[in-house]
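We include the entry.

. . .
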Amino acid sequence: MSTHETSVEHSSPNSDPWTQNPPTHSHSPGSEQWARELVTKLATDALVEKRRARRWGIFFKSLVMLYLIALLWIGLEGRQWLSDFGKQPPHTAIVNLTGSITDDAEANADNLVTGLRAAFQDQQTAGVILRINSPGGSPVQANLVFEEMLRLREQHPTIPLYAVITDVGTSGAYYVAAAAQEIYASPASLVGSIGVIAGGFGFVDTLEKLGIERRLYAAGDNKALLDPFSPEDPEQTEFFQALLDEVHQQFIEAVQRGRGERLQNDPELFSGLVWTGERSLELGLIDGLGSTRYVAEELIGQERLVDFTRRLRWTDRLLLHFGQGVGVGLLQQGQWRWQ
């Protein structure tokens, strides 16, 4: 039997090995130091956490304070600053009137009026220029734009409205221009043509020579007014001339309303003649010679130009041209007929 086993056999049965030989680490100097370090670490961590919580508390309190100060500042002084923040500088608004003024063209009353309204409603608009290059068109469309321009001038008295004629500003285009506060043109611009025109053809003898008999059915004595395949009726011709004279008088009154005493007393002023920009200035049809840039810089005082012209989308423009091309082609080929 080994020595270790012998010592166990001779030990007292009532002896407690744990009591007789307690763990030495529980009372050792190293154990006490470890405990102190643990307590110190726990206390330090608690103190750090408390300081961290205090810092976050100060941070959130500061945010709330800054928020309240910002609200107070906005209510007292910052409202104007915020409204001005990010604004573009003042500009001269441009709306282009190009081509014939008809309902199915880009230069129709709806597009022109929409562009003019947008120009006047923009807060940075210092003045509006209607830039014209048009031979005229529908008196109805022209009158709609004319009346809206006068209304916008009255509604926005601090924003001047000028018309600038480039190459051509005649007939219905001049009708529209007359509603502007002032009109400017180049020396060689064509201006005027204050008149009304309607035309057609007569094919009576042609049909007879070709052996074609014209068959026309209508309810109403004047329903076939000015039919090109029928002989002229003096009464109908006189009636139609009266219509043209009435529209012409409306045109004259609109020009007089817009231009006032600036018009010269010239018997040919409303005869339908066209004048150059220089001659138009002498007749009082325009107020000066100048370009769009001149009016923007010298009269409005803002050289920055912003275009407010409302245009057809490219798809609409494509469909319009396609439809016109197909219609002309069918007419030329003699294939168009009512179903």
